[in-house]
Specification:
By secondary structure, the protein is an alpha+beta fold. It contains ten helices and 21 strands. The termini are far apart.
Length: 441
């Protein structure tokens, strides 16, 4: 089996671009500690893509508190199904279709959550083969997730930063597997291959959007009949650990369905899980159980984000194809799905997140609860809690949602984030609050 080192052409492409504008420029950071795990998804149980060497420079391209999405020097070693990549004799390859899943492991299982998608003709380099899967080194455009507490943000001169980055690229140069191409696909793997390579140029159909009629019926039929998952608060308060374990099993079933097809998304099912996890954190005193619960919530948030991203992509495709009625139905569905969990409107809701204080264009302070991409406006109606003093703390808040007039200028960005429309928006009125212990303590 022939091997060769990563071509100089790729190395030159992997040096971070200095020509980006200030708005587009990622933040430069360092991971000082050796062995920090970089995950495919913002969940400590997600697949580990890379364990860092000491003093690793990274570029921060996104943030979902308390996680950061980063790019690393030299790219990542990931997996792709063999039906969607072609190689020459030297092991240099290209992706043959658009929107091919980038996997951290050689499988489509729930433990191999995609890092993203390859564009058509993306360059890759073959490292090894496992059955119908090929491990490849991809470009630095692909990001992974790290807990933000591991990052520091020292200042570097441009030349120093480029030198540090290039040194890691040189050190991480892999050996490319050449000469022997991957084996011919087994016909039994066709279903997996089709799931992995969704052509980005394929037109959107109404049935894919989960619309009324035959499409909605097909989506509903894809959901297996399972008993409704419910836990009352008395049972949760009596044994929070048992409640979390039951919720974790339900989450595993739900995640398997949703990652198989986003038509299996069920908002009521997701809301029930969020309600249980919030109340587990409210009643629990076991720090380990609380950390597990917060990790489960992060996974649930990821499933929600996966589904919303799918809806947004379908809406854009429908709009581009001139199918305005389909695009409008999808827009309304997005509006509904972006709204935070509001409970039954009668009993107290328990919400989990970080207290964030933002300045509005009018100079006023806005207190919000944030978890991942979810943003929820807070109001201390009776003045019982010093919410500004809790900025940056993770909390569980209990209370009810109430309607308030929407101030267009200050609230425009927030209203968009939570799917608010019209002259009013919902605000969460805090009645009780619990500050959660720091993670891992």
């Amino acid at each position: 089996m022939a091997t060769s080192h990563l071509p100089a052409l790729l190395l030159s492409c992997l040096i971070p671009a200095a020509a980006l504008t200030a708005q587009e420029q990622p933040r430069r950071a360092m991971v000082a500690k050796e062995g920090v795990k970089l995950h495919a998804f913002y969940d400590p149980r997600a697949a580990v893509v890379l364990e860092t060497p000491a003093d690793l420079p990274v570029e921060v391209v996104g943030e979902l508190v308390p996680w950061s999405k980063v790019r690393v020097p030299g790219g990542l070693d990931v997996w792709v199904h063999q039906d969607y990549v072609t190689f020459d004799a030297e092991g240099t390859g290209t992706i043959s279709r658009g929107n091919v899943n980038i996997r951290p492991r050689p499988s489509t299982g729930a433990d191999s959550h995609p890092l993203g998608h390859f564009d058509r003709e993306s360059p890759v380099y073959r490292l090894q083969v496992d059955g119908d899967w090929v491990q490849v080194r991809c470009s630095e455009k692909v990001g992974v997730w790290v807990e933000s507490r591991h990052l520091s943000f020292p200042e570097f001169e441009e030349a120093t930063w480029v030198k540090k980055w290039q040194a890691v690229v040189d050190h991480r140069t892999p050996e490319i597997m050449g000469s022997e191409p991957p084996p011919v696909a087994d016909p039994s793997t066709t279903e997996v291959a089709e799931a992995e390579g969704l052509d980005g140029n394929r037109p959107v159909q109404e049935s894919e959007a989960g619309l009324a009629g035959e499409g909605a019926a097909a989506a509903e039929a894809s959901l297996p009949a399972t008993p409704a998952f419910r836990l009352d608060e008395a049972a949760i308060a009596k044994n929070p650990a048992a409640a979390r374990a039951a919720a974790a099993l339900e989450l595993e079933r739900f995640a398997t369905l949703v990652t198989r097809s986003d038509n299996n998304w069920d908002r009521a099912r997701a809301d029930t899980l969020e309600d249980v996890y919030g109340k587990v954190l409210w009643h629990s005193s076991d720090v380990e159980q609380m950390d597990l619960t917060r990790a489960d919530l992060a996974r649930l948030d990821g499933l929600r984000r996966f589904y919303l991203g799918s809806l947004e992509a379908r809406q854009r495709a429908a709009q581009a194809a001139g199918r305005t009625s389909v695009a409008e139905v999808l827009r309304q569905k997005l509006h509904t799905e972006k709204a935070p969990y509001q409970g039954d409107g009668q009993s107290s809701v328990a919400l989990v997140g970080w207290v964030v204080r933002e300045s509005t264009p009018g100079g006023q302070a806005s207190i919000r609860l944030q978890r991942g991409k979810m943003v929820m406006p807070l109001e201390d109606k009776e003045g019982l809690h010093d919410l500004p003093a809790l900025r940056g703390r993770e909390v569980v808040v209990r209370g009810v949602w109430e309607s308030r007039p929407r101030q267009v200028a200050p609230d425009a960005q927030l209203a968009q984030a939570i799917g608010a429309e019209g002259d009013t928006m919902m605000v969460f009125v805090v009645r009780e609050l619990r500050v959660l212990p720091a993670r891992g303590e």
